[in-house]
Amino acid sequence: MGLSAAFHLRRADPSLAVTVLERARIGSAASGASAAGVRVMGRDPAERRLALESLGRWPGLDRELEGKTGYQRGGGLRVALDDKTWEATPGWVAEQRADGVPLEVADAATARRLAPGIAPACLGGVYAPSTARPGPWPPSRPSPRPGDGSERAWKRAWARRS
Ligand SMILES: Cc1cc2nc3c(=O)[nH]c(=O)nc-3n(C[C@H](O)[C@H](O)[C@H](O)COP(=O)(O)OP(=O)(O)OC[C@H]3O[C@@H](n4cnc5c(N)ncnc54)[C@H](O)[C@@H]3O)c2cc1C
Fold first, then answer.
1. 3-state DSSP: the chain helix, strand, coil percent, rounded to 5?
2. Within a domain: 74
3. Could you say which DSSP state residue 66 is in?
4. How close is the Cα of 30 to the center of ligand 1, in Å?
């Protein structure tokens, strides 16, 4: 957020001298630990407009930032592993679609086609073609510094992925 605010301030008025004050290192906290998913599906309703705005902006970011983000849309799938979740799926999807979130209900066969090897218990799911990720995975990892909180966050993020 800090770097983005600095970037937009300078862009709005190039004559401004902007200083970013950072306690540790850039990327040392949540931004350095993020799984880097660009996702609108399943966001809190209060975040949806912002997430949709962001989604529309990503494809042009390489040009805007004059650098390579490696942004690519691979789609995202959330699966239902029990009857209760599967029964709630149409309502969950309709509520988000009403706010403009592009989602598709995927039956069990479609979910298996999208994610071969998925658990036999999968009853179906919700597919978001817009879900994306910038950069190669895994991203370059900033070295954690004891006490700055990033070590714990990274361990959680990497444990989830492995
Ligand atoms: C494990 C994990 C996975 C995540 N995955 C995703 C994901 O897939 N998709 C997604 O959209 N979001 C994800 N997030 C959330 C996302 O990373 C955060 O919402 C986002 O990075 C927050 O950015 P920020 O700039 O607000 O905070 P930060 O990136 O935490 O930046 C705050 C900065 O302020 C500095 N600071 C703190 N106190 C001071 C001080 N007193 N003086 C000066 N500087 C100070 C810190 O050192 C830090 O660099 C994930 C978060 C985590 C932890």
1. 45, 10, 45
2. yes
3. T
4. 3
Q: What is the spatial distance between Cα 3 and Cα 11, in angstroms, rounded to a whole number?
A: 12
Number of domains making up the chain: 2
Examine residue 144 and state whether it is found in any structural domain, yes or no. Answer: no
- Rounded to the nearest whole angstrom, what is the distance from the C-alpha of residue 137 to the centroid of ligand 1? 19
Per residue in 54-88, pLDDT (tens digit) is 999 999 999 999 999 899 999 999 999 999 999 99
Section 17-39 average pLDDT: 91
Residues spanned by the domain of 10: 1-34
Query: Ligand 1: which of 3, 19, 23, 28 to mutate, judged by most atoms within 8 Å of the beta carbon?
Result: 23
* 154: in domain: no
79 and 2, same structural domain?
no
Residue 36 CA: which ligand 1 atom is closest?
8
Q: Which of 47, 46, 65 is nearest to 55 (CA)?
A: 47
Pocket of ligand 1 (CB under 6 A): 1-2, 21-24, 28-31, 33-37, 153, 156-157
